[in-house]
Amino acid sequence: MNKINLKRLSYKELSDFVAQMDGRPYRAKQMAAWIFLRGVCQFGQMTDIPLQFREKLDTMAYIGCVSEKSRQVSTDGTVKFLFALQDGLTVESVLISEGARRTLCVSTQVGCKLACAFCLTGASGFTRDLDAAEIVDQVIRARELSDEKKITNLVLMGMGEPLDNFDKVIHALKLVTDPEYQLVGVRKITVSTVGLAPGIERLGRELPKVKLAVSLNAGDDATRERIMPITKKYPMDALAKALAVYPLPQGRRITLEYVLLKGVNDEKKDAEGLSRFAKKFPSKINLIPFNQTAGIPFARPDIEDVRRFKGWLVEKNHTVMIRDSKGADILAACGQLAGDKWSGGKT
Ligand code: SAH
C-alpha cells in the first residue's frame, strides 16, 4: 500500500483521515500542530499521541520533510539554507530580516526551464518540479531553524518558475494559508513570474489575494527576447493584456521587477519602454541592480546609472524602489540560487 504524505493534506483532509482511523476529534488538531507548527518528521516525536495510534499511523502514512544540508549566514544577517529532498536533490531557501519583517524566499522547482541569460538557476537547467509538501516544508523548516521562529512574509522568488509548476504551487499556497495551519497570511505572499500569461490568468482566478510580481527586465521585445527567451512565446503585448485584466484587490498594484544590466537595458529608451508598459495597469517598479555571479556574462551598472534610471521613471510618475539585494556575499541574492550544483564545494 502506498503511504499517504500527511504534509500534503489540508486540515479538512487530515481530520477525515484521522477520523477514519478511529482517532478522537481532537487528534487532528494535535497532529496538525506537530506537523505544521512544530515541524516534526516522525510520528515517534508526537509525545501526546498514544503509542498504539502512532504505530498505526506509521503503517499508513508518513510526514514528508526536507532536511537541512547546510546553512550560510551573510554579514547582513541573511540566512541561506540548502535543503535536501527525499531523492537527494537540493534546493535553496533564503531568510531575509528587515525590521520586524522575516521574509522567506522559497524555491518551486529544482532548476528552471526558462534559461534567462542573467540568472544562475537558469544556467543550471531543469531537473524537476517540487511537490506541494516540499514547498510547504521549506517554510516549516526555515521557521524551525531560525532564531526567532517566525516567518512573516513569503516570496516565491527562489529557484524555478512558480507558474510553470502551477498545480503544486497553488496546492502549497492553500496549505500555507489553511486557516488551521496559518503559516503565513495570504496577503503576505508574493508570486514572482517571468510572465506566463495563461498562468497569470489562472492565478487571478484561483488565488487573487496573493501579490503578483512580474520580472520584466526590458522595455521592448527585442531586448527582452535576448535576455528572456520566454518573450518569444509571450511577447510584452500579450503579457500587458493579461496584467491589465488581472483581478487586483482594491488598492493593490502589480510589482514589475527590473534587473538592471549594464549596457543592456539601462538606457533612457529602456526606461521609456518600461514606463509605457507599466502605465497599462496599476503598477510599481522594483529595480534590482544585477547581482554578479561567476560565469554569467553581465555587469551591474554603477550606482549613479541606477539612480539616473530611477529618475527617468520617477519623472513619469512611477513608484520606484531600488532593491538592495541582501546576502550577496553568500550568493543568496536574486538570481544566485542554484542548489548545490554551483556552490563551489562550500556545502
Ligand atoms: N522565475 C521567477 C522567480 C525566480 S527569479 C521570476 O522570474 O520572477 C526572482 C527574481 O530574481 C526575478 O525578478 C529575476 O529577474 C531576478 N534575478 C535573476 N537573476 C538575477 C541576478 N543575477 N541579479 C539580480 N536579479 C536577478
Short description:
This protein has 347 residues and is of the alpha/beta class. It has helices spanning 11-20, 25-37, 51-60, 120-123, 132-145, 166-176, 197-206, 221-227, 236-244, 268-278, 303-315; strands at residues 4-5, 61-62, 67-73, 79-84, 90-98, 101-105, 109-111, 126-129, 153-156, 189-193, 211-215, 254-260, 283-289, 320-322.
What secondary-structure arrangement, pairings included, does this model have?
Layout: E1 4-5, H1 11-20, H2 25-37, H3 51-60, E2 61-62, E3 67-73, E4 79-84, E5 90-98, E6 101-105, E7 109-111, H4 120-123, E8 126-129, H5 132-145, E9 153-156, H6 166-176, E10 189-193, H7 197-206, E11 211-215, H8 221-227, H9 236-244, E12 254-260, H10 268-278, E13 283-289, H11 303-315, E14 320-322
Parallel strand pairs: 1-2, 6-9, 9-10, 10-11, 11-12, 12-13, 13-14
Antiparallel strand pairs: 3-4, 4-5, 5-6, 7-8
Helix pairs in contact: 1-2, 5-6, 7-9, 10-11
Bound molecules: S-adenosyl-L-homocysteine (SAH).
